[in-house]
Write a structure and sequence with these properties.
By secondary structure, this protein is α+β, with helices and mostly antiparallel strands. It is 38% helix and 21% strand. The longest helix has 17 residues, at 138-154. The protein binds adenosine monophosphate.
């Protein structure tokens, strides 16, 4: 048997792979136009970064990390998310000391989680992210949410819903946490869930099982335990969203699986995706820098799933001819060895002139090569036979109409450029 991609992974193949590129461009465009600079961090980090930065009580760290020892005996982990690495890089290079705060960054790349694979949930997936570090300002939370909203809108998605909540801060969150634990300890729950009550009670609220959700009906909510500062902050974020015309739903049960989130938390969901409905999410993480040994650096950010956004767009039937950008416009059909030589150079010239061009390889006859021309989606074929070479011309065939004319070789590039640039 030939080798297969590992379980939970898949290959992006053309032309569908163009969709992923288009989604990445569109989702990050608004952030790039809002002063966010591109950052690329390593795909693997010291395991300690995620243990400290994501939190030992999370599913990610306790069950899902791809961790291994490298040949130098270091414990290395394939990144399961982007935020911890971004904060690590900012602290390492002192970006927060180099100028104005917030430091605004965006990223794009692969993430790795050993999850139960199903549609929309993979072990290797692709996220784009944006982070703003070093400011505590409700307008920054609102800005980030808006940038994601605009990214989805740029793709034409209409079915993305925004859920918002606040998780409180280090003043009110512990009080709420204790109240929640009291309530949860009184419920009839399985052993694993009971253990979770002690280490990460907020995550119990996130349990998707209907029987658990039913028991959670009367659970205390963080909104009822907010301190004045958190309440005012959250009101301002909501009011800015409303002022900017963003529709959202308050979801007092919305929690995030990562320990470092404080205050604003949000998620984008799409109803066309089945159980894996989250297309993106984020929030404020005021404590993360300190957890990584840095100074206080209140920050907010999001990560959007590229794979799931493609699925959401497919569910909405939004893709037309996604390969149009990359599509070959001119296709060379050389007939014979001398023709191949000439065509190779002509195609090179066309490409250098900015026209996407391809040619037939492998010494095909005219029939096979013309089939290639049709498959390529090109508008024109340039056919070059021995007699053409002798006459210093090539046959330029309009593949839509079938019209064919002999054009002097020296004029082909100019002529095709004129026709195709129109
Ligand atoms: P998270 O970092 O868990 O907040 O995830 C942010 C977004 O990444 C989610 O809303 C999903 O769109 C996407 N995502 C998370 N985990 C996976 C996965 N295993 N497979 C595909 N997409 C994922």
């Amino acid at each position: 048997m030939t080798l297969q991609a590992p379980k939970g992974t898949f290959d992006w193949l053309p032309p569908r792979s163009e969709r992923a590129l288009a989604v990445r461009e569109a989702l990050t465009g608004p952030a790039r136009r809002a002063g966010y600079g591109y950052i690329e961090t390593p795909v693997f980090e010291d395991t300690a970064l995620f243990v400290r930065g994501v939190g030992e009580s999370t599913d990610i760290v306790s069950k899902e990390m791809y961790t291994f020892e490298d040949k130098g005996g270091r414990s290395i982990t394939l990144r399961p998310e982007g935020t911890a690495s971004v904060v690590r890089a900012v602290l390492q290079h002192g970006l927060h000391n180099n100028g104005q705060l917030p430091v605004k960054l965006w990223y794009s790349g692969s993430q790795f989680r050993y999850e139960r694979a199903q549609k929309g949930r993979y072990r290797h997936f692709w996220q784009v992210g944006a982070e703003a570090l070093g400011s505590e300002d409700p307008a920054l939370d609102a800005e980030l949410i808006l940038l994601a909203v605009d990214g989805y809108a740029a793709l034409g998605l209409t079915g993305v819903r925004l859920l918002v909540n606040t998780l409180g801060d280090k003043v009110c969150r512990p009080v709420y946490r204790a109240a929640l634990q009291d309530f949860l300890r009184g419920l009839d729950l399985d052993e694993a869930t009971r253990a979770r009550i002690e280490i990460n009670p907020l995550r119990v609220l996130d349990d998707k099982r209907p029987e658990v959700q039913a028991r959670l009906a009367g659970a205390p909510l963080v909104v009822d335990h907010l301190c004045e500062a958190c309440k005012a902050y959250h009101e301002e974020v909501r009011s800015l969203l409303t002022a900017a015309g963003v529709a959202y739903t308050d979801d007092p049960r919305l929690v995030r699986g990562l320990d470092y989130y404080t205050r604003t938390t949000f998620e984008f969901v799409h109803d066309g995706l089945g159980s894996q409905s989250a297309v993106g999410g984020g929030g404020r993480y005021d404590g993360l820098s300190e957890m990584l040994g840095g100074p206080p650096l209140p920050s907010v950010g999001w990560a959007l799933g590229v794979d799931r956004t493609v699925l959401a767009m497919e569910a909405e039937g939004l893709f037309g001819d996604e390969s149009a950008e990359a599509r070959v416009r001119v296709y060379g059909v050389p007939l014979g060895e001398e023709a191949r030589r000439r065509m190779f150079l002509l195609v090179t010239e066309l490409r250098r002139a900015g026209l996407a061009a391809d040619m037939s390889f492998g010494g095909k006859g005219v029939k096979g090569a013309m089939k290639g021309a049709d498959r390529s989606g090109a508008g024109y074929a340039v056919i070059l036979g021995e007699r053409d070479i002798a006459e210093g011309v090539a046959q330029v065939k309009d593949l839509a109409s079938g019209d064919q004319t002999a054009v002097p070789l020296a004029e082909i590039v100019t002529m095709l450029k004129e026709r195709l640039d129109k």
